[in-house]
TrEMBL record:
Protein name (record): Dynamin family protein
UniProt-listed InterPro entries: P-loop_NTPase
Superkingdom to which the source organism belongs: Bacteria
Amino acid sequence: MNLAERAWSLLTRAQEVYADSPAATHWLRRHAARFGEPPRVAVAGPQGAGSSTLVAALLGEAADGRRQAAPMSWQHLPADAGWPELLVLDASASAQEAGPRVADALRMEADAVLYLAPHPHEADLALLRAAHDHPAIRLAPVNVLAVLARADELGGGRVDALISARRVARRWAAEAPLAELCQDVVAVAGLAALAARTLRPGEFELLAALAAAPKSELDPLLLSADRFGADPDRAELLGRFGLYGVRLATTLIRGGRDTPRALSAELGRRSGLDALGEAVSTYVARRAPVLKARSALLGLDVVLRREPRPSAAPLVTELERTLTGAHELAELRLFSTLRTGRVSLPEELGEEAARLVGGYGEAPQARLAVDAPEPALRQAAAGTLRRWRGYAENPVFGSAERLAASTVVRTCEALVTEPL
């Protein structure tokens, strides 16, 4: 029985135990219903980090007040443009007045979190730690992606600013303390991403006219925001794209992205929005059952603590056993450490480990890279298990590498012994 199945079973039994408690029953049914929903992803961060801008970019809506969602409400993001189907929450709303409420939303309501920071040194780690401050969360966090949401500023708004920002993100992903609190770090230029998703015909025409101007005329205007924004039309464009977005868009139009569709697509890629979508697909959508099971188990823990009763004692015991033995969560964490370089195995072994722990698909065929009937899968799993047991005991490896190999060993043991 996998983690999602164990979580569902526990929720079902808990509803029977708490059938006489309307509040507990409502809470448990809500968590059970979430198994049939898209993954819930909360976008949060310190004030000014760009949470609302990124949420607007995801939803494809200009942040001009024409459609305002209720504070702290989930909004539906259909699968589109490289992004999986999600429910998205702008958790920056009321963050100054309701910090505990935001932390509760991240801890109890979200399956995953996009944690935004304008710059690495401005990360509000207290909020992130509060989101993990729950008695049941003793395993390494597996549901947070950090986002450098104004990444273009790290490169001074240059056209190649995202290249520098990605290097910063990779370094940040491997360093404490953030490495201990998230799966990975992605760089995004939020305003450019929003403009890519909501490009208007008039804006494209103005950008095309700017791109057609001689460089000797345009380049001096793009030296500073004050100079470029001196004209009212250009000031509006600046507010929507940012100076980086204007520089990038005019460069792209000159380079042949001379239709609104082509410009929007390349802006989305160059803003980092596509890379963020790939990260969300990899860490969240593909492992949604595991993350939903984690959320359900935390929700069950709330009921067991708020309304303890003798008949629930077996549930308490099984919940603790399930959380401490949740190998699927250990697999998620190992996949992250391999991708970010926090644990370094020899290249071929690192790729094999990432595949075996389900990073590229949870089916046994995907894990073992063998498309064959069950007997052949079992045989391949047994051979793989023998090899990885050797790696786990190899004194040449450091302790972190041997621990990583031990996680892979447990995965292989399950492939050998459990139903495929």
